[in-house]
Amino acid sequence: MGATVKYLAEIAGGVVEGDGDIVINAAAPIETAGKNQISFLANNKYKTFLKTTSASAVVLSEGFECNCPAVIRHKNPYYAFAQILDELYPDTKEIESKIDSAAVVSDSAAIGDCCSVGALSFIGNNCKIADNCIIYPSVYLGNNVSLGKNCRLYPGVIINDDTKLSDNVIIHSGAVVGSDGFGYAQHEDGIKKVRQIGWVEIGNDTEIGANCTIDRGALGPTRIGRHVKIDNLVQIAHNVEIGDYSIIVSQAGISGSTKLGKGVILAGQVGLVGHIKLGDGVQVGAQSGVNKSIPPGKKVFGYPARDIIKTARIEACLNKLPDLFKRIRKLEENK
């Protein structure tokens, strides 16, 4: 049905400039948005579109100008836009509260009120599922798995034995939680598998992307904190600990027993060796390799990962190497 710009600004905590009575029916990218649509700008790469966009409204921070009929000013446009999307596109999917006849549920499992269990899902012995959980078709829950309230497991998720999920956890398709960690003992006759007897614990409001793998602890738990956001295709090894509010981007890999503090950010394809610690607020740039512990608040980049400013200086020097070789060659020829 849409909403006025003024109403959307109130929801997002922003300030309207221009016509607040315009009705917004949809959201769209800034380069393609049209009449009665709203967009946002949070990246300077797209600021040129402010001159050409046909959007009826744009969410902007201070310092940017736009010829749109309406602007919503906010110090964090991306966050404000997220709130606006929730208003324009409410979650209206109706999930029937029932256990499908094609699901397999152990007699010893306890399932709370208003839960949905889809066809071909399997729920093992002594599982405990709290109220309002949605388990889509073809989900596997091993023995002794517990789910807090309002969890959502998408098709193809595998949750192995003894895993503990807190409230509001979302796990996307293809993720495997609680598989054996990579533990083997070499000896004179070959390689002996070390039995993995730990488990996985996942905190409130955490979201895990598609095709992630989170290994159970070898001894004790692998722990994922509260409000952690994990992108697709991330590998987390046994006994890793990830602090609250951390963000792990696609194709990152964290080796065993490594500990991340609160608010750590690992960009895409970052690799961490085992048994190190990253302090609170550490940020690691894309494709970096971290081979030692990092104190709180540091920003690092490169392979091996160093302070980001130091890495930039090294890269600048490397770019000058061809010219330096030419100069050296000339000096040698003139001897």
Give me a quick take on this structure.
The protein folds into two domains: 3-88, MurE/MurF, N-terminal domain (Udp-n-acetylmuramoylalanyl-d-glutamate--2,6- Diaminopimelate Ligase, Chain: A, domain 1, 3-Layer(aba) Sandwich), CATH 3.40.1390.10; 104-310, Hexapeptide repeat proteins (UDP N-Acetylglucosamine Acyltransferase, domain 1), CATH 2.160.10.10. It contains four helices and 39 strands. A hairpin with a 2-residue loop joins strand 21 (184-187) and strand 22 (190-193).
Shape, please? flat
Number of domains: 2
SS-based class? alpha/beta
Helix content: 10-25%
Layout: helices, strands, pairs:
Layout: E1 3-4, H1 5-12, E2 15-18, E3 23-24, E4 26-27, E5 37-40, E6 57-60, E7 70-73, H2 77-88, E8 104-105, E9 110-111, E10 116-117, E11 122-123, E12 128-129, E13 134-135, E14 140-141, E15 146-147, E16 152-153, E17 158-159, E18 164-165, E19 170-171, E20 176-179, E21 184-187, E22 190-193, E23 199-202, E24 207-208, E25 213-215, E26 221-224, E27 229-230, E28 235-236, E29 241-242, E30 247-248, E31 253-254, E32 259-260, E33 265-266, E34 271-272, E35 277-278, E36 283-284, E37 289-290, E38 299-301, E39 306-307, H3 308-319, H4 321-333
Parallel strand pairs: 4-5, 5-6, 6-7, 8-11, 9-12, 10-13, 11-14, 12-15, 13-16, 14-17, 15-18, 16-19, 17-20, 18-23, 19-24, 20-25, 23-26, 24-27, 25-28, 26-29, 27-30, 28-31, 29-32, 30-33, 31-34, 32-35, 33-36, 34-37, 36-38
Antiparallel strand pairs: 1-3, 2-7, 21-22, 38-39
Architecture overview:
It is built from four helices and 39 strands. Strands 10-13-16-19-24-27-30-33-36-38-39 form an eleven-stranded mixed β-sheet. It has a ten-stranded parallel β-sheet with strand order 8-11-14-17-20-25-28-31-34-37, with no helix packed on it. The relative contact order is 0.06. The N and C termini lie far apart (82 Å). Helix 1 (5-12) packs across helix 2 (77-88). With 335 residues, it is of the alpha/beta class.
